Amino acid sequence: MNITPHEITLIDDELDLLASCVTLANQQIIELGCGAATLARKLLPRFPGSIVTGVEVDERQHAKNLDSPQAGLRFVAGVAQAIPFANEDFDLALMLKSLHHVPRGSMAQALAEVARVLRPGGHLYVSEPVYAGPLNDVARLFNDEGTVRAAAQVAVDEALRTGAWEQVVERRFAVPVKFADFADFEMRMMRPTFANHRIDDAKLAEVRAVFEPHVNAAGAYFEQPMHVRLLRKRSGTDSTSPA
User: Fold this and answer.
1) Could you tell me the pTM of the whole model?
2) Which helix (H) or strand (E) holds 9?
3) HSE-CB for 118 with a 13 A CA cutoff
4) pLDDT tens digits, residue range 212-235?
5) Which residues have CB under 8 Å from 126's CB, separation 6+?
């Protein structure tokens, strides 16, 4: 899966990439900012013996998760910057498009918390959307994440400089994103349960005008560029989190 500077690999299922980077069977896994835990729900049947704990801050999404149980999957309410588990409880932590949602002033604390709850030699898989591409050009009209996405990468760089981590994998790729029509885009992207983007009629019309040229008989298709960094917790790292 080596990528040249002029070539971005298209990956339909990020679980395949994750599985190529780290052991997934017989693992204690925590996903921070799990949302609907889509990847975790696919992971468990494929990799026996693992348990995934999804941590979610949004109360409505957490309630939905509790109403959709699955063997090997448990959910708790919480935030990455104060993970409600003991030291060294997990083998693998996942942050799938969630680090940039942590408040900027708490990103360093969140990564320190991840180091605390991972066992020595455990891994942190950080997958973040890149601030580029046609889908981003539409989304930034109502939710400009340029600053927070850049801050997430800086936070990872700074965590590496603490000596608690070593980076073992870095990948850039793209994932296909499809919408049936603008109404589908509006529901999924503009009016999610976890955010209020304050969409008025003028903004809705502005976004629709930029979105509609991407629509054809099959709907709208985009390729979202992504950046993955896999970190390993160094052995001997102090398992305390800074105050």
Assistant:
1) 0.92
2) strand 9-10
3) 30
4) 999 999 999 999 999 999 999 998
5) 95, 99, 152, 156, 228, 229, 230, 231
**Contact at 8 Å (CB) between 212 and 185?**
no
- Token readout for 72 is 């090997």
Q: What residue ranges do the domains of the chain occupy?
A: 9-130+144-176+226-233
- pLDDT tens-digit series, residues 49-62: 999 999 999 999 99
- The whole-number pLDDT of residue 238 equals 62
Lookup: tokens for 168: 């073992």
CATH architecture entry for 9-130+144-176+226-233: 3-Layer(aba) Sandwich (3.40)
Q: Is 71 exposed, middle or buried (0-12, 13-18, 19+ CB in 10 A)?
A: exposed
Q: Measured at the alpha carbon of residue 226, what is the angle toward residues 222 and 157, in degrees to the nearest 5?
A: 155
